[in-house]
Amino acid sequence: MKKKILSISMLALIGLGLTVSSTSCSEKEGCTNPQAKNYDAEAEKDNGTCDLSGNQLNGNVWTINEDIKKGQDTVRWTKDKIYILNKRIVVEDGAILKIEAGTIIKGQVGTGANATALLIARGGKIFAEGTAQDPIIFTSTADVIKAGEVASPNLNPSTEGLWGGLIVLGRAPISADAASKQIEGIPASDLRGLYGGDVEDDNSGVLKFISIRHGGANIGANNEINGLTLGGVGSGTVVENIEVVANQDDGIEFFGGTVNAKNLLVWNSGDDAIDTDQAWSGTIDNFIVICGATTDHGLEIDGPEGSLLRSHTVKNGSIKGHPSAEMADFRDGARAAIQNLYFFNFPDPTTSGGEGDFALSGQTGDKATYANGFLTFSKLEATLATGLTADKAFLNTTDKYVSLVTLKNNTVGADKAAFASWTWADAAGQLADFK
């Protein structure tokens, strides 16, 4: 009976001149190539309209020559290709770049105006979501690493400055002489390098399980690019499981903003391993620093540069020193809560020209913020050189917050399990000294 009713209904529709069709069997046509400017993720059948102008494919290697602009469909970089940054590539305001787990991105070797980098401008978004099984690797074209490899087959983990780095900019508040500033490492003529604003929860995307290597190219006097630069990045952005190896300038630097970060590892940075500036007000939770021959400080904590007075938290970290490195420096009226940190393998500052210490720098405002409770310390532990006392290494009365322990008997510090299997540091045996 129901079949007869259905047939009558269909005949009635046909009699009215209406077309009866089934959409369940139709295929949406469009561009199905993820590398094309007009890629359509919903297209099931390619219609021959893919626009691949600008970028060049040679085998499985894509040379990226063009910025990613607003109005394009989401650009996707996939792990079956290797991507070569042929210049400074910018994800512009309103544009989106997605990077598949396991993808390798390589920057052309160059300095000055020729320094390559990936810049996520204010309003742009990056979704680079690697996994512990398939981390995303940013490296130099001098690196012959292939998909599935963790350690470089040919480059030393101290080789630095071959390309730029990864720069993410947002519209979260910064403490500076203006509401927005030009990020270091990007020429002033490129206004896409501006960062800062008033959007506390600004969202620049997701960074997960990423290793950034051999960067820090110099674009001018004292103007290098950090391994990972976060300028005015908001709390809507996810930053987790990041490794930076052999960067000529800082490993990771925060310029203001409100973003939180966890599971960070910096090995062989050329300046400071982790640097915070301009009243960044997020939290770093769980990190490892392995200082190298050119590392200046394990931590550099800088104060605000404008009227915005905010502080941040750095907690649960283990920092391994080097004969040329210092534990930490607090400068320019630093405001922060430093908690649950462990330091070891640093030199005796009384015999190494002042290297190795943990100190307020003595610059304007440092001792005042400490005295007034805006810079606080709790649960610090250290394994010091034989015969070295805490008051000689932890200066300006900060020694009262530290307990001396023997190597690997620390009760605070990082959980190194977070860095197992996916980091070059782990593959190279560098985590063996950590508890």
Describe this entry's structure for a reader:
- The strands form four sheets. The chain has a 16-stranded mixed β-sheet that branches. The chain has a nine-stranded parallel β-sheet with strand order 7-10-13-17-19-21-23-25-27, with no helix packed on it.
- The longest helix is centred in the first third of the chain and has 14 residues, at 2-15.
- It has helices spanning 2-15, 366-371, 390-393, 424-427, and strands at 29-30, 45-46, 56-58, 61-64, 75-77, 82-85, 88-91, 96-99, 104-107, 117-120, 125-129, 136-140, 166-169, 181-182, 194-195, 205-213, 228-231, 238-245, 252-255, 261-267, 272-277, 283-290, 297-302, 312-320, 326-331, 336-344, 358-360, 375-383, 402-404.
- With 435 residues, it is mainly β.
- The model is unreliable at 1-24 (pLDDT under 50).
Topology:
Elements: H1 2-15, E1 29-30, E2 45-46, E3 56-58, E4 61-64, E5 75-77, E6 82-85, E7 88-91, E8 96-99, E9 104-107, E10 117-120, E11 125-129, E12 136-140, E13 166-169, E14 181-182, E15 194-195, E16 205-213, E17 228-231, E18 238-245, E19 252-255, E20 261-267, E21 272-277, E22 283-290, E23 297-302, E24 312-320, E25 326-331, E26 336-344, E27 358-360, H2 366-371, E28 375-383, H3 390-393, E29 402-404, H4 424-427
Parallel strand pairs: 1-2, 4-6, 5-8, 6-9, 7-10, 8-11, 9-12, 10-13, 11-16, 12-16, 13-17, 16-18, 17-19, 18-20, 19-21, 20-22, 21-23, 22-24, 23-25, 24-26, 25-27, 26-28, 28-29
Antiparallel strand pairs: 3-4, 14-15
